[in-house]
Amino acid sequence: MPKYIPEPFRIKMVEPIRLIEKSARLAALQRAGYNVFGLRSDEVYIDLMTDSGTGAMSQEQWSALMLGDESYAGARSFFRLKEVIDQIFGFKHFVPVHQGRAAENILCAVLLKPGQKVPSNMHFDTTEGNIRARGGQPVNLVNKAAYDPQAILDFKGDMDVEALEKWIEETGVENIPFGMMTITNNAGGGQPVSMANIRAVSKVYRQHGIPFFIDACRYAENSYFIKLREKSYENKSPLEIAQEIFSLADGCTMSAKKDGLVNMGGFLAMNDDDLFVRVKAELILREGFPTYGGLSGRDLDALAVGLKEALNVEYLAYRLSQAEYLAGRLRDVGVPIIEPPGAHAIYIDAAGMLPHLNREQLPGQALSIALYLEGGIRGVELGTVAFGNQVNGHWEYPSLELVRLALPRRVYTQSHLDYVAEVLGEIKAQATSIKGMRMTYAPELLRHFTAQFEIA
Ligand SMILES: Cc1ncc(COP(=O)(O)O)c(C=O)c1O
Protein backbone atom coordinates (compact mmCIF):
# COMPACT_ATOMS: atom_id res chain seq x y z
CA MET A 1 0.00 0.00 0.00
CA PRO A 2 1.26 3.55 -0.71
CA LYS A 3 1.79 5.75 2.35
CA TYR A 4 -0.91 8.14 1.18
CA ILE A 5 -3.95 6.75 -0.56
CA PRO A 6 -4.49 8.20 -4.06
CA GLU A 7 -7.85 9.73 -4.96
CA PRO A 8 -10.31 6.84 -5.47
CA PHE A 9 -11.85 8.60 -8.49
CA ARG A 10 -10.80 10.16 -11.76
CA ILE A 11 -11.83 13.58 -13.01
CA LYS A 12 -14.66 13.73 -15.54
CA MET A 13 -15.48 17.43 -15.48
CA VAL A 14 -13.19 20.34 -14.63
CA GLU A 15 -13.73 23.77 -13.14
CA PRO A 16 -10.91 26.22 -13.97
CA ILE A 17 -9.19 28.08 -11.11
CA ARG A 18 -6.71 30.92 -11.42
CA LEU A 19 -4.26 32.78 -9.21
CA ILE A 20 -4.80 36.52 -9.69
CA GLU A 21 -1.91 39.03 -9.30
CA LYS A 22 -0.76 39.94 -5.79
CA SER A 23 -1.78 43.61 -6.34
CA ALA A 24 -5.31 42.41 -7.22
CA ARG A 25 -5.37 40.23 -4.11
CA LEU A 26 -4.44 43.21 -1.97
CA ALA A 27 -7.15 45.34 -3.59
CA ALA A 28 -9.67 42.55 -3.01
CA LEU A 29 -8.73 42.36 0.67
CA GLN A 30 -9.07 46.11 1.10
CA ARG A 31 -12.48 46.05 -0.56
CA ALA A 32 -13.54 43.13 1.68
CA GLY A 33 -12.57 44.95 4.89
CA TYR A 34 -9.85 42.31 5.46
CA ASN A 35 -12.47 39.64 5.95
CA VAL A 36 -12.00 36.67 3.60
CA PHE A 37 -15.75 36.04 3.68
CA GLY A 38 -16.04 39.24 1.61
CA LEU A 39 -13.91 37.89 -1.29
CA ARG A 40 -15.42 36.76 -4.57
CA SER A 41 -14.64 33.15 -5.37
CA ASP A 42 -13.00 34.28 -8.64
CA GLU A 43 -10.44 36.07 -6.50
CA VAL A 44 -9.52 32.86 -4.66
CA TYR A 45 -7.12 30.25 -6.03
CA ILE A 46 -7.41 27.39 -3.53
CA ASP A 47 -10.55 27.69 -1.43
CA LEU A 48 -10.15 25.95 1.92
CA MET A 49 -12.64 28.15 3.72
CA THR A 50 -14.99 25.29 4.44
CA ASP A 51 -15.75 21.66 3.70
CA SER A 52 -19.43 22.57 3.96
CA GLY A 53 -21.40 22.36 0.73
CA THR A 54 -18.20 22.59 -1.31
CA GLY A 55 -17.74 18.90 -2.17
CA ALA A 56 -17.99 17.30 -5.60
CA MET A 57 -20.96 15.03 -6.21
CA SER A 58 -20.45 11.62 -7.79
CA GLN A 59 -21.85 10.46 -11.12
CA GLU A 60 -24.41 8.45 -9.12
CA GLN A 61 -25.56 11.59 -7.33
CA TRP A 62 -25.82 13.57 -10.57
CA SER A 63 -27.88 10.73 -12.03
CA ALA A 64 -30.10 10.66 -8.95
CA LEU A 65 -30.91 14.34 -9.50
CA MET A 66 -32.77 13.34 -12.62
CA LEU A 67 -35.11 11.18 -10.55
CA GLY A 68 -36.16 14.13 -8.39
CA ASP A 69 -39.89 14.22 -7.74
CA GLU A 70 -40.91 17.84 -7.23
CA SER A 71 -44.38 17.10 -5.83
CA TYR A 72 -45.23 19.49 -3.01
CA ALA A 73 -46.34 16.71 -0.67
CA GLY A 74 -45.41 13.04 -0.42
CA ALA A 75 -42.72 13.09 -3.12
CA ARG A 76 -41.00 9.81 -4.06
CA SER A 77 -37.68 11.59 -3.40
CA PHE A 78 -38.64 12.05 0.25
CA PHE A 79 -39.36 8.34 0.70
CA ARG A 80 -36.08 7.36 -0.97
CA LEU A 81 -34.27 9.65 1.45
CA LYS A 82 -36.31 8.34 4.36
CA GLU A 83 -35.25 4.79 3.60
CA VAL A 84 -31.56 5.76 3.80
CA ILE A 85 -31.94 7.95 6.90
CA ASP A 86 -33.92 5.19 8.63
CA GLN A 87 -31.17 2.70 7.84
CA ILE A 88 -28.21 4.82 8.99
CA PHE A 89 -29.65 6.96 11.77
CA GLY A 90 -32.60 4.86 12.89
CA PHE A 91 -34.63 7.64 14.52
CA LYS A 92 -38.40 7.39 14.41
CA HIS A 93 -38.96 10.73 12.66
CA PHE A 94 -37.07 13.26 10.58
CA VAL A 95 -37.75 16.43 8.65
CA PRO A 96 -35.55 17.77 5.84
CA VAL A 97 -34.26 21.33 6.26
CA HIS A 98 -32.22 23.56 3.99
CA GLN A 99 -29.06 23.28 6.12
CA GLY A 100 -27.76 22.42 9.57
CA ARG A 101 -28.47 25.72 11.29
CA ALA A 102 -32.13 25.46 10.28
CA ALA A 103 -32.31 22.18 12.22
CA GLU A 104 -30.63 23.92 15.18
CA ASN A 105 -33.04 26.84 14.95
CA ILE A 106 -36.10 24.59 14.96
CA LEU A 107 -34.77 22.48 17.82
CA CYS A 108 -34.09 25.60 19.90
CA ALA A 109 -37.44 27.15 18.93
CA VAL A 110 -39.41 24.17 20.24
CA LEU A 111 -37.32 23.10 23.23
CA LEU A 112 -35.35 26.03 24.64
CA LYS A 113 -36.63 28.67 27.07
CA PRO A 114 -34.70 31.87 27.87
CA GLY A 115 -32.17 31.35 30.65
CA GLN A 116 -31.73 27.63 29.98
CA LYS A 117 -28.37 26.03 29.24
CA VAL A 118 -27.32 23.46 26.64
CA PRO A 119 -24.21 21.33 27.24
CA SER A 120 -22.05 19.75 24.54
CA ASN A 121 -18.46 18.69 24.09
CA MET A 122 -18.11 21.89 22.01
CA HIS A 123 -20.87 23.65 20.14
CA PHE A 124 -20.21 24.90 16.65
CA ASP A 125 -20.69 28.65 16.12
CA THR A 126 -24.10 28.33 14.43
CA THR A 127 -25.32 26.11 17.28
CA GLU A 128 -24.01 28.62 19.81
CA GLY A 129 -25.68 31.41 17.85
CA ASN A 130 -29.03 29.64 17.72
CA ILE A 131 -28.96 28.87 21.44
CA ARG A 132 -28.05 32.46 22.31
CA ALA A 133 -30.64 33.85 19.87
CA ARG A 134 -33.34 32.13 21.99
CA GLY A 135 -31.91 33.54 25.21
CA GLY A 136 -30.10 30.33 26.13
CA GLN A 137 -26.51 29.64 27.05
CA PRO A 138 -24.27 27.13 25.26
CA VAL A 139 -21.87 25.29 27.57
CA ASN A 140 -18.75 23.45 26.36
CA LEU A 141 -17.57 20.50 28.46
CA VAL A 142 -14.94 18.89 26.24
CA ASN A 143 -12.02 17.07 27.93
CA LYS A 144 -9.21 19.42 28.96
CA ALA A 145 -6.61 17.99 26.56
CA ALA A 146 -8.74 19.29 23.68
CA TYR A 147 -7.40 22.73 24.50
CA ASP A 148 -3.78 21.64 24.17
CA PRO A 149 -2.90 21.85 20.45
CA GLN A 150 -0.03 19.37 20.83
CA ALA A 151 -1.70 16.71 23.00
CA ILE A 152 -1.98 13.53 20.92
CA LEU A 153 -5.15 11.66 21.80
CA ASP A 154 -7.12 9.21 19.70
CA PHE A 155 -10.41 10.83 20.68
CA LYS A 156 -9.66 14.41 21.53
CA GLY A 157 -13.30 15.40 20.94
CA ASP A 158 -14.51 13.37 23.94
CA MET A 159 -16.65 15.10 26.51
CA ASP A 160 -15.51 15.29 30.14
CA VAL A 161 -18.16 12.99 31.62
CA GLU A 162 -17.31 13.79 35.24
CA ALA A 163 -17.53 17.51 34.53
CA LEU A 164 -20.87 16.92 32.79
CA GLU A 165 -22.30 15.09 35.83
CA LYS A 166 -21.10 17.78 38.19
CA TRP A 167 -22.41 20.52 35.93
CA ILE A 168 -25.86 18.90 35.70
CA GLU A 169 -26.04 18.69 39.52
CA GLU A 170 -25.14 22.36 39.84
CA THR A 171 -27.36 23.57 36.99
CA GLY A 172 -30.47 21.51 37.73
CA VAL A 173 -32.21 19.40 35.08
CA GLU A 174 -35.10 21.86 34.85
CA ASN A 175 -32.62 24.34 33.32
CA ILE A 176 -31.34 21.90 30.69
CA PRO A 177 -33.83 21.40 27.83
CA PHE A 178 -31.54 19.07 25.91
CA GLY A 179 -27.90 18.02 25.72
CA MET A 180 -25.70 17.75 22.66
CA MET A 181 -22.46 16.32 21.31
CA THR A 182 -20.70 17.34 18.11
CA ILE A 183 -19.14 14.55 16.05
CA THR A 184 -16.47 15.23 14.97
CA ASN A 185 -15.69 18.26 17.13
CA ASN A 186 -15.27 20.95 14.48
CA ALA A 187 -14.72 23.90 16.84
CA GLY A 188 -11.99 21.95 18.65
CA GLY A 189 -9.95 20.90 15.63
CA GLY A 190 -12.23 18.35 13.96
CA GLN A 191 -11.37 15.77 16.59
CA PRO A 192 -13.35 12.53 16.79
CA VAL A 193 -15.42 11.29 19.70
CA SER A 194 -15.16 7.67 20.85
CA MET A 195 -18.07 5.25 21.06
CA ALA A 196 -17.24 4.72 24.73
CA ASN A 197 -17.62 8.44 25.36
CA ILE A 198 -20.86 8.75 23.38
CA ARG A 199 -22.20 5.81 25.39
CA ALA A 200 -21.12 7.33 28.72
CA VAL A 201 -22.61 10.73 27.87
CA SER A 202 -25.81 9.09 26.67
CA LYS A 203 -26.07 7.26 29.99
CA VAL A 204 -25.68 10.47 31.97
CA TYR A 205 -28.21 12.37 29.86
CA ARG A 206 -30.68 9.47 30.07
CA GLN A 207 -30.28 9.07 33.84
CA HIS A 208 -31.36 12.69 34.16
CA GLY A 209 -34.09 12.54 31.52
CA ILE A 210 -32.26 15.05 29.31
CA PRO A 211 -32.95 14.48 25.57
CA PHE A 212 -29.67 13.81 23.75
CA PHE A 213 -29.14 15.31 20.29
CA ILE A 214 -26.02 14.62 18.25
CA ASP A 215 -24.68 17.27 15.88
CA ALA A 216 -24.09 14.61 13.25
CA CYS A 217 -22.69 16.45 10.25
CA ARG A 218 -19.43 14.47 10.18
CA TYR A 219 -20.92 11.17 11.31
CA ALA A 220 -19.15 9.12 8.63
CA GLU A 221 -15.69 10.50 9.37
CA ASN A 222 -16.26 10.01 13.10
CA SER A 223 -17.44 6.43 12.49
CA TYR A 224 -14.30 5.69 10.49
CA PHE A 225 -12.05 7.09 13.24
CA ILE A 226 -13.81 4.71 15.64
CA LYS A 227 -13.15 1.83 13.26
CA LEU A 228 -9.46 2.73 13.07
CA ARG A 229 -8.82 3.64 16.68
CA GLU A 230 -11.28 2.05 19.07
CA LYS A 231 -10.81 -1.48 20.29
CA SER A 232 -13.33 -4.04 19.04
CA TYR A 233 -14.57 -1.85 16.18
CA GLU A 234 -11.92 -2.74 13.59
CA ASN A 235 -14.10 -5.40 11.99
CA LYS A 236 -17.29 -3.35 11.98
CA SER A 237 -18.34 -1.37 8.93
CA PRO A 238 -18.71 2.43 9.16
CA LEU A 239 -22.44 1.85 8.67
CA GLU A 240 -22.68 -0.50 11.66
CA ILE A 241 -20.69 1.95 13.75
CA ALA A 242 -22.93 4.86 12.72
CA GLN A 243 -26.01 2.82 13.59
CA GLU A 244 -24.59 2.12 17.04
CA ILE A 245 -23.76 5.79 17.62
CA PHE A 246 -27.26 6.99 16.81
CA SER A 247 -28.92 4.24 18.82
CA LEU A 248 -27.46 6.02 21.86
CA ALA A 249 -29.17 9.34 21.13
CA ASP A 250 -32.72 10.71 21.01
CA GLY A 251 -32.22 12.67 17.83
CA CYS A 252 -29.74 14.58 15.72
CA THR A 253 -29.21 17.82 13.86
CA MET A 254 -27.56 17.29 10.51
CA SER A 255 -25.88 19.60 8.05
CA ALA A 256 -25.83 17.34 5.00
CA LYS A 257 -23.37 19.72 3.35
CA LYS A 258 -20.59 17.72 5.00
CA ASP A 259 -20.96 13.94 5.15
CA GLY A 260 -24.18 14.09 3.14
CA LEU A 261 -21.90 14.90 0.18
CA VAL A 262 -24.34 17.47 -1.19
CA ASN A 263 -24.01 21.19 -1.74
CA MET A 264 -27.12 22.08 0.24
CA GLY A 265 -29.36 20.27 2.68
CA GLY A 266 -29.84 18.94 6.16
CA PHE A 267 -32.33 17.36 8.48
CA LEU A 268 -33.54 17.17 12.04
CA ALA A 269 -34.31 13.69 13.39
CA MET A 270 -35.89 12.58 16.64
CA ASN A 271 -37.67 9.71 18.39
CA ASP A 272 -40.19 11.67 20.43
CA ASP A 273 -43.68 11.76 18.84
CA ASP A 274 -44.83 14.92 20.58
CA LEU A 275 -41.64 16.75 19.70
CA PHE A 276 -42.12 15.71 16.07
CA VAL A 277 -45.55 17.34 16.01
CA ARG A 278 -44.10 20.61 17.33
CA VAL A 279 -41.12 20.44 14.99
CA LYS A 280 -43.41 19.99 11.97
CA ALA A 281 -45.43 23.07 12.94
CA GLU A 282 -42.26 25.16 13.19
CA LEU A 283 -40.88 23.63 9.99
CA ILE A 284 -43.97 24.55 7.98
CA LEU A 285 -43.68 28.11 9.24
CA ARG A 286 -39.98 28.50 8.44
CA GLU A 287 -38.78 25.92 5.90
CA GLY A 288 -41.58 24.16 4.06
CA PHE A 289 -43.85 21.13 4.09
CA PRO A 290 -42.45 18.15 6.08
CA THR A 291 -41.72 16.04 3.00
CA TYR A 292 -39.43 18.64 1.43
CA GLY A 293 -38.41 21.10 4.20
CA GLY A 294 -36.93 23.79 1.99
CA LEU A 295 -35.21 21.44 -0.46
CA SER A 296 -36.04 20.42 -4.03
CA GLY A 297 -37.01 16.82 -4.65
CA ARG A 298 -33.80 16.36 -6.64
CA ASP A 299 -31.75 17.58 -3.64
CA LEU A 300 -33.37 14.89 -1.50
CA ASP A 301 -32.40 12.24 -4.04
CA ALA A 302 -28.78 13.40 -4.28
CA LEU A 303 -28.61 13.37 -0.49
CA ALA A 304 -30.00 9.85 -0.27
CA VAL A 305 -27.10 8.67 -2.43
CA GLY A 306 -24.51 10.89 -0.71
CA LEU A 307 -25.28 9.71 2.82
CA LYS A 308 -24.43 6.17 1.75
CA GLU A 309 -21.37 7.07 -0.33
CA ALA A 310 -19.91 8.88 2.67
CA LEU A 311 -19.77 5.54 4.52
CA ASN A 312 -17.74 3.84 1.78
CA VAL A 313 -14.48 2.53 3.27
CA GLU A 314 -12.28 3.38 0.25
CA TYR A 315 -13.61 6.91 0.21
CA LEU A 316 -13.09 7.36 3.96
CA ALA A 317 -9.57 5.93 3.84
CA TYR A 318 -8.64 8.43 1.11
CA ARG A 319 -10.35 11.25 2.96
CA LEU A 320 -8.37 10.74 6.17
CA SER A 321 -5.20 10.15 4.20
CA GLN A 322 -5.56 13.51 2.42
CA ALA A 323 -5.73 15.33 5.75
CA GLU A 324 -2.76 13.34 7.04
CA TYR A 325 -0.80 14.22 3.89
CA LEU A 326 -1.33 17.97 4.30
CA ALA A 327 -0.55 17.72 8.01
CA GLY A 328 2.75 15.97 7.18
CA ARG A 329 3.75 18.59 4.64
CA LEU A 330 2.98 21.38 7.13
CA ARG A 331 4.99 19.68 9.88
CA ASP A 332 7.90 19.47 7.41
CA VAL A 333 7.92 23.25 7.00
CA GLY A 334 7.51 23.91 10.73
CA VAL A 335 3.91 25.12 10.73
CA PRO A 336 2.32 24.31 14.11
CA ILE A 337 -0.96 22.48 13.74
CA ILE A 338 -3.48 20.91 16.06
CA GLU A 339 -2.35 17.35 16.57
CA PRO A 340 -3.42 14.83 15.60
CA PRO A 341 -5.15 16.06 12.43
CA GLY A 342 -8.85 15.34 12.02
CA ALA A 343 -10.43 14.33 8.73
CA HIS A 344 -12.11 17.41 7.36
CA ALA A 345 -9.53 20.10 8.03
CA ILE A 346 -6.11 21.01 9.28
CA TYR A 347 -6.11 23.62 12.02
CA ILE A 348 -3.09 25.88 12.23
CA ASP A 349 -2.15 27.11 15.68
CA ALA A 350 -2.00 30.79 14.67
CA ALA A 351 -0.82 31.95 18.10
CA GLY A 352 2.06 29.46 17.84
CA MET A 353 2.84 30.46 14.26
CA LEU A 354 2.85 34.21 14.97
CA PRO A 355 4.19 34.43 18.55
CA HIS A 356 5.21 38.06 18.06
CA LEU A 357 1.50 39.02 18.04
CA ASN A 358 -0.50 39.08 21.26
CA ARG A 359 -4.12 37.90 21.32
CA GLU A 360 -5.46 41.44 21.05
CA GLN A 361 -3.69 41.69 17.70
CA LEU A 362 -5.87 38.83 16.41
CA PRO A 363 -3.14 36.47 15.13
CA GLY A 364 -5.70 34.10 13.58
CA GLN A 365 -7.21 36.87 11.52
CA ALA A 366 -3.74 38.14 10.58
CA LEU A 367 -2.69 34.68 9.40
CA SER A 368 -5.81 34.14 7.32
CA ILE A 369 -5.11 37.47 5.58
CA ALA A 370 -1.44 36.59 4.98
CA LEU A 371 -2.46 33.25 3.52
CA TYR A 372 -4.69 34.90 0.96
CA LEU A 373 -2.27 37.71 0.17
CA GLU A 374 0.73 35.42 -0.34
CA GLY A 375 -0.95 32.50 -2.08
CA GLY A 376 -4.56 33.27 -2.97
CA ILE A 377 -5.55 30.60 -0.43
CA ARG A 378 -8.68 31.08 1.62
CA GLY A 379 -8.80 29.59 5.11
CA VAL A 380 -10.91 30.78 7.99
CA GLU A 381 -10.12 32.21 11.42
CA LEU A 382 -11.53 30.15 14.27
CA GLY A 383 -10.14 32.03 17.23
CA THR A 384 -10.84 35.33 18.92
CA VAL A 385 -12.95 36.71 16.08
CA ALA A 386 -15.14 33.61 15.78
CA PHE A 387 -15.37 32.57 19.42
CA GLY A 388 -14.12 35.42 21.64
CA ASN A 389 -16.46 37.63 23.63
CA GLN A 390 -16.16 41.37 24.02
CA VAL A 391 -17.15 42.33 27.56
CA ASN A 392 -17.07 46.05 28.48
CA GLY A 393 -14.67 46.75 25.63
CA HIS A 394 -12.29 43.92 26.64
CA TRP A 395 -11.81 40.60 24.91
CA GLU A 396 -12.44 37.29 26.62
CA TYR A 397 -10.27 35.00 24.56
CA PRO A 398 -11.13 31.43 23.59
CA SER A 399 -8.46 28.88 24.51
CA LEU A 400 -7.39 28.28 20.93
CA GLU A 401 -6.40 30.76 18.25
CA LEU A 402 -6.75 28.83 15.01
CA VAL A 403 -6.90 29.14 11.26
CA ARG A 404 -8.75 26.27 9.65
CA LEU A 405 -7.82 24.86 6.28
CA ALA A 406 -10.91 22.83 5.46
CA LEU A 407 -10.74 20.16 2.78
CA PRO A 408 -13.71 20.14 0.41
CA ARG A 409 -14.67 16.53 -0.32
CA ARG A 410 -13.28 15.05 -3.56
CA VAL A 411 -12.26 18.49 -4.89
CA TYR A 412 -8.54 19.23 -4.58
CA THR A 413 -5.67 16.94 -5.52
CA GLN A 414 -2.38 16.26 -3.77
CA SER A 415 -0.56 18.87 -5.88
CA HIS A 416 -2.99 21.55 -4.72
CA LEU A 417 -2.10 20.58 -1.16
CA ASP A 418 1.63 20.73 -1.99
CA TYR A 419 1.10 24.32 -3.12
CA VAL A 420 -0.72 25.19 0.13
CA ALA A 421 2.14 23.76 2.19
CA GLU A 422 4.73 25.68 0.16
CA VAL A 423 2.93 28.99 0.67
CA LEU A 424 2.58 28.35 4.39
CA GLY A 425 6.27 27.45 4.58
CA GLU A 426 7.11 30.82 3.02
CA ILE A 427 4.82 32.65 5.46
CA LYS A 428 6.43 30.82 8.36
CA ALA A 429 9.90 31.86 7.15
CA GLN A 430 8.92 35.55 7.29
CA ALA A 431 6.37 35.31 10.10
CA THR A 432 7.69 38.28 12.07
CA SER A 433 6.84 40.63 9.20
CA ILE A 434 3.11 39.87 9.57
CA LYS A 435 1.23 42.67 11.28
CA GLY A 436 -1.66 42.34 13.72
CA MET A 437 -5.27 43.30 12.96
CA ARG A 438 -7.88 45.46 14.63
CA MET A 439 -11.62 44.91 14.35
CA THR A 440 -13.51 48.01 13.17
CA TYR A 441 -17.02 46.53 12.94
CA ALA A 442 -18.69 43.45 14.40
CA PRO A 443 -22.29 42.26 14.45
CA GLU A 444 -23.65 40.91 17.73
CA LEU A 445 -23.94 37.25 16.67
CA LEU A 446 -21.79 35.09 14.38
CA ARG A 447 -19.25 37.87 14.20
CA HIS A 448 -16.66 36.39 11.88
CA PHE A 449 -18.91 36.23 8.81
CA THR A 450 -19.29 40.00 8.43
CA ALA A 451 -16.82 41.71 10.80
CA GLN A 452 -14.49 44.32 9.27
CA PHE A 453 -10.83 44.87 10.07
CA GLU A 454 -7.83 47.09 9.51
CA ILE A 455 -4.13 46.44 9.91
CA ALA A 456 -3.11 47.43 13.44
C1 LIG B 1 -20.27 20.93 13.59
C2 LIG B 1 -21.19 21.80 12.78
N1 LIG B 1 -22.46 21.95 13.17
C3 LIG B 1 -23.32 22.71 12.47
C4 LIG B 1 -22.94 23.36 11.33
C5 LIG B 1 -23.94 24.23 10.61
O1 LIG B 1 -24.32 23.70 9.39
P1 LIG B 1 -24.81 24.61 8.17
O2 LIG B 1 -23.63 25.39 7.70
O3 LIG B 1 -25.31 23.62 7.16
O4 LIG B 1 -25.89 25.49 8.66
C6 LIG B 1 -21.63 23.24 10.88
C7 LIG B 1 -21.19 23.94 9.66
O5 LIG B 1 -20.04 24.09 9.37
C8 LIG B 1 -20.73 22.42 11.63
O6 LIG B 1 -19.46 22.23 11.24
The CATH H-level superfamily of the largest domain is: Type I PLP-dependent aspartate aminotransferase-like (Major domain)
How many discrete domains?
2
By CATH, the topology of the largest domain is Aspartate Aminotransferase, domain 2
Decide which structural class fits the backbone. Answer: alpha/beta
3D architecture notes:
The structure is a single chain. The chain is α/β, with parallel strands linked by helices and 456 residues long. It has 2 domains: 174 residues, Aspartate Aminotransferase, domain 1; 251 residues, Type I PLP-dependent aspartate aminotransferase-like (Major domain) (Aspartate Aminotransferase, domain 2), CATH 3.40.640.10. 39% of the residues lie in helices and 14% in strands. The chain is built from 16 helices and 16 strands. The strands form 6 sheets. It has a 5-stranded mixed beta sheet. It has a 3-stranded antiparallel beta sheet with strand order 9-14-11. A hairpin with a 2-residue loop joins strand 12 and strand 13. Helix 1 runs antiparallel to helix 14, helix 2 runs antiparallel to helix 11 and helix 4 runs parallel beside helix 5. The longest helix is centred in the last third of the chain and has 20 residues. It is globular and about 60 Å long. It starts with 21 loop residues before the first helix and ends with a strand. The model has no long low-confidence stretch (mean pLDDT 96). Pyridoxal-5'-phosphate (PLP) binds next to helix 4 and helix 5.
